[in-house]
């Protein structure tokens, strides 16, 4: 059955960005049709670590992450659930004096962005967080950062958008999207066609393909952050953890399970990713070393996901450089969960108002236009700012 | 180039031992990995060394088969690389990750025989988590492995041949069996009779257990449904409903229950096997050809791990899979023997159809699970939570249900709660269990200690 839907805004991708854009657009009265190839919020948005943190983000993301911080506070009003969101604090650890120096520089550079970072020396770190290994040089605490349950939060954005009147179509994979000079026409593998004046490309790890279809080739790659979860344990980890330089991140959920990430998985032929066995020992060993209370604990599951990543670890966010009415929001590079709702709101402002008060110039797709190839070849040297995130 | 890698057999029950035997006969030296300390599998589980109960007492009418299998394994020991007490917890790119007596190890393979057996299929009912409630298989293991009964006055509930066998074994061992409560109706058994006549020995054995139990004063009831377990800290009895709808109370201090068996398929999933829904087992099973070849190259499936068929079939299927493995390696394999094994397996398959008619899965059970009954005991999720999630329209398949409710997310990773969750989800959606899909498996297959790799090295990784 070939169906045709005419709508104001078509959205490809029902992750936290696409679904929150749908929600905010409905609030502004726009007709919205959202297409997801599987289930909304089931990919990177739903299986990520669950960190909701501002600390560690680059300066260019400060206004966006600050707005997201406000939106997370309003989560129950927005999507009808708190999604297990807690402002536990985010503690970024330093292994060495150099790490500590980097944390100090970061605090100085981000002053005025109201993160209220507190630098803790080794003695204070031991006094306040005695469950950590005693070999650390210090840490930086962002008291109002925290974590949430992505399995609940991301699908809830899609449900809230649907309740607000957005048409949410799952198991609807896009085969082809084109612009005829006036409108977009999107053809799906199930025969559905969608016509819209505006198209939002929120397709995560698959968004680069959509952009390329409109002549905008960007060096988006797929990453598969590796995570594991322990059996429920008595509560000890009072904050969400990251570490300067990356490599491990950890939090403990209300039920007592510890969620710990670090290293990578690998893509499988079926489009899902799986943990890489070569990365498992390092993750186990690092967790046992950093968190002595875990040494007697058992791991009940490893998992990973499929996430889009850009060479500079900043998203592509904003209008297309080539096609009027096309907007991109993808390549969150392992740090999209916290900023996702704010990006959705920004997209709604770009569509309805033509501009957003949040500065997003740093994320323009044009930054790859000239040197896409060079960028793709660059190594992942600045990884530490984003690794412990999502 | 490294030396040729040995074929690996996971599981040393009836299927695994017979597979090993066939490979050894062909001159190979397979690696045999088993979670238990001694070979035999669940059905022919051996007690620890030094226990003195004889095999007739341990295995009843099957003691000769048990003894033959144990002897076969003993004779194989010089010719196989036997790894008892070893958990296979991951499989990726031709390497199995192991935990051997708490230590990490890994073995590469090019040929893998999966003979991981089965566990009880359980569906929740009110009070099923009360201390003193065991699975049928668990009750049997306590008796076989440790010579312990699960209680002094024990009731057995559920369906399948195991129900009567375990009750008989308990009674023979001196336990007081309060009653055997079969969810299958007498009419089911009569309907299955023509099919069962093809296997007079099996039918005779079943009738013998029933007659023996009756003669020893054990009440047998058919068409039963549980109402609830009585007692708080400990089982004090069982309230049950008979086929006519009348409720009764039975005094007992322990309850063994199970609704036939459920294949252990996680290793097959991690090894990349394709799965199909099997209507008879009401479960997703790894796809295989009649010889036992899985869809993943070099992977073979044998025994209950590939679909429930019992110990006799497992022995045949283990040998058949090994012959297929030899054939695929270009080694001489007895094709006439292979054909005879397949014929025999087909015959047992038809018998399984008849058994399924005699002891049908109680399709109304899941519907009747009250909302406040815990469905997933690891994560403490009730049937009501699942139904409420379905009512929001958010969950139409198992992986989504897991994400939204945590069902199957705990220690057992769905091994125990998966069957019940699928039935409740399917019931709430008004679809067949086939339509709700299969939980994607992740490593580890069973929990591993975080300290497993204290040194941070992965054995078996090419350098």
Provide an overview of this structure.
The complex is a heterodimer of chains A (390) and B (463). Chain A has 390 residues and is of the alpha+beta class. Chain A has helices spanning 16-27, 44-47, 62-73, 75-79, 97-109, 122-128, 150-163, 207-213, 280-290, 340-352, 372-377, and strands at residues 4-12, 32-35, 51-52, 90-94, 118-120, 138-142, 146-147, 167-169, 174-179, 184-188, 193-201, 221-223, 225-230, 240-243, 249-252, 258-267, 273-275, 298-303, 307-309, 316-319, 326-330. Chain A has two domains: 4-50 and 151-220 and 310-382, FAD/NAD(P)-binding domain (3-Layer(bba) Sandwich); 86-146 and 222-309, D-Amino Acid Oxidase, Chain A, domain 2. In chain A, strands 1, 2, 8, 9, 10, 11, 20 and 21 form an eight-stranded mixed β-sheet that branches. In chain A, strands 13, 15, 16, 17 and 18 form a five-stranded antiparallel β-sheet that branches. A four-stranded mixed β-sheet of chain A has the order 5-6-4-14. In chain A, strand 10 and strand 11 form a beta hairpin. In chain A, helix 1 packs parallel to helix 7 (150-163), helix 1 packs across helix 10 (340-352) and helix 3 (62-73) crosses helix 10 (340-352). Chain B folds into three domains: 8-119 and 262-355, FAD/NAD(P)-binding domain; 122-259, FAD/NAD(P)-binding domain (3-Layer(bba) Sandwich), CATH 3.50.50; 365-436, Orthogonal Bundle (Arc Repressor Mutant, subunit A), CATH 1.10.10. Chain B has 14 helices and 23 strands. In chain B, the strands form seven sheets. Chain B has a five-stranded parallel β-sheet with strand order 3-2-1-7-20, covered by helices on one side. A five-stranded parallel β-sheet of chain B has the order 9-16-10-11-12. The radius of gyration of chain B is 22 Å and the shape is globular. In chain B, 52% of the residues are buried. The mean pLDDT of chain B is 93. At the A-B interface, helix 7, helix 9 and strand 18 of A face helix 13 and strand 23 of B. Strand 18 of chain A pairs antiparallel with strand 23 of chain B.
């Amino acid at each position: 059955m070939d169906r045709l839907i005419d709508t104001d805004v078509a959205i490809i991708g029902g992750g936290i960005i696409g679904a929150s854009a749908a929600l905010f657009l409905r609030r502004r009265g726009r007709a919205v049709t959202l297409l997801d190839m599987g289930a909304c919020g089931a990919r990177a948005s739903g299986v990520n670590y669950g960190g909701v943190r501002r600390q560690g983000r680059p300066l260019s993301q400060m206004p966006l992450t600050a707005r997201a911080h406000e939106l997370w506070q309003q989560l129950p009003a927005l999507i009808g659930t708190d999604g297990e969101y807690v402002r536990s604090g985010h503690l970024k650890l330093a292994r060495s004096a150099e790490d500590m120096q980097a944390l100090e520089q970061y605090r100085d550079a981000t002053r005025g962005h109201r993160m209220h970072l507190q630098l803790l020396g080794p003695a204070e770190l031991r006094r306040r967080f005695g469950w950590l290994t005693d070999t650390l040089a210090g840490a930086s605490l962002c008291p109002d950062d925290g974590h949430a349950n992505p399995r609940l939060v991301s699908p809830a954005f899609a449900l809230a958008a649907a309740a607000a009147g957005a048409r949410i179509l799952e198991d609807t994979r896009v085969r082809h999207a084109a612009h005829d000079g006036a409108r977009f026409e999107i053809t799906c593998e199930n025969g559905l066609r969608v016509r819209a004046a505006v198209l939002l490309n929120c397709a995560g790890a698959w968004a680069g393909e959509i952009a390329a279809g409109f002549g905008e080739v960007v060096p988006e790659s797929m990453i598969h952050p590796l995570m594991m979860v322990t059996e429920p344990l008595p509560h000890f980890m009072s904050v969400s953890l990251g570490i300067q330089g990356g490599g491990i991140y950890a939090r403990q959920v209300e039920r007592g399970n510890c969620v710990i990430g670090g290293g990578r998985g690998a893509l499988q032929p079926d489009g899902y990713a799986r943990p890489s066995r070569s990365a498992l020992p390092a993750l186990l060993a690092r967790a046992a070393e950093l968190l002595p209370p875990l040494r007697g604990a058992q791991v009940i599951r490893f998992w990973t996901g499929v996430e889009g990543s850009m060479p500079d670890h900043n998203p592509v966010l904003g209008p297309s450089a080539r096609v009027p009415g096309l907007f991109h929001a993808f390549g969150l590079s392992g740090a999209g969960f916290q900023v996702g709702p704010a990006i959705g709101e920004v997209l709604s402002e770009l569509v309805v108002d033509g501009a957003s008060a949040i500065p997003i110039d740093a994320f323009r797709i044009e930054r790859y236009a000239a040197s896409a190839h060079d960028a793709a070849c660059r190594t992942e040297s600045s990884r530490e700012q984003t690794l412990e995130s999502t | 180039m490294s030396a040729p890698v040995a074929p690996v057999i996971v599981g040393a029950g009836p299927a695994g031992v017979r597979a090993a035997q066939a490979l050894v006969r062909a001159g190979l030296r397979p690696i045999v990995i088993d979670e238990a300390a001694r070979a035999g599998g669940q059905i022919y589980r051996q007690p620890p060394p030094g226990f003195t109960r004889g095999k007739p007492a341990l295995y009843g009418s099957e003691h000769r088969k048990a003894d033959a299998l144990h002897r076969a394994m003993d004779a194989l020991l010089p010719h196989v690389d036997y790894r008892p007490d070893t958990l296979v917890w991951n499989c990726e790119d031709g390497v199995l990750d192991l935990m051997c007596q708490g230590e990490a190890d890994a073995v590469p393979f090019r040929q893998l025989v999966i003979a991981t057996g089965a566990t009880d299929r359980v569906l929740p009912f009110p009070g099923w988590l009360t201390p003193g409630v065991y699975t049928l298989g668990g009750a049997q293991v306590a008796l076989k492995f440790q010579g312990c009964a699960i209680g002094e006055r024990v009731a057995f509930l559920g369906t399948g041949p195991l129900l009567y066998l375990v009750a008989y074994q308990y009674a023979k061992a001196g336990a007081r069996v309060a009653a055997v409560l079969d969810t299958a109706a007498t009419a089911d058994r009569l309907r299955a009779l023509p099919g069962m006549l093809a296997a007079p020995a099996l039918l005779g054995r079943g009738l013998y257990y029933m007659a023996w139990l009756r003669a020893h004063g054990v009440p047998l009831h058919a068409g039963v449904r549980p109402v609830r377990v009585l007692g708080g800290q400990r089982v004090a009895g069982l309230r049950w409903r008979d086929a006519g709808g009348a409720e009764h109370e039975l005094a007992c201090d322990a309850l063994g229950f199970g609704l036939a068996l459920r294949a252990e398929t996680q290793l097959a999933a991690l090894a990349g096997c394709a799965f199909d829904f099997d209507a008879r087992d009401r479960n997703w099973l790894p796809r295989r050809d009649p010889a036992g070849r899985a869809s993943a190259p070099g992977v073979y499936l044998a025994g209950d791990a590939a679909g429930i068929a019992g110990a006799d079939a497992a022995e045949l299927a283990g040998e058949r899979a090994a012959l297929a493995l030899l054939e695929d390696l270009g080694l001489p394999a007895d094709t006439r023997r292979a054909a005879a094994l397949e014929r025999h397996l087909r015959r047992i398959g038809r018998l399984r159809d008849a058994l399924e008619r005699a002891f049908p899965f109680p399709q109304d059970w899941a519907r009747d699970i009250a909302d406040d009954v815990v469905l997933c005991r690891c994560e403490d999720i009730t049937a009501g939570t699942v139904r409420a999630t379905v009512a929001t329209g958010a969950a139409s398949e198992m992986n989504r249900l897991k994400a939204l409710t945590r069902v199957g997310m705990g220690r057992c990773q769905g091994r125990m709660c998966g069957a019940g969750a699928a039935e409740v989800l399917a019931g709430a959606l008004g679809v067949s269990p086939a339509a709700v899909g299969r939980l994607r498996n992740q490593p580890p297959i069973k929990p591993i200690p975080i300290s497993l790799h204290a040194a941070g090295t992965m054995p078996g990784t090419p350098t």
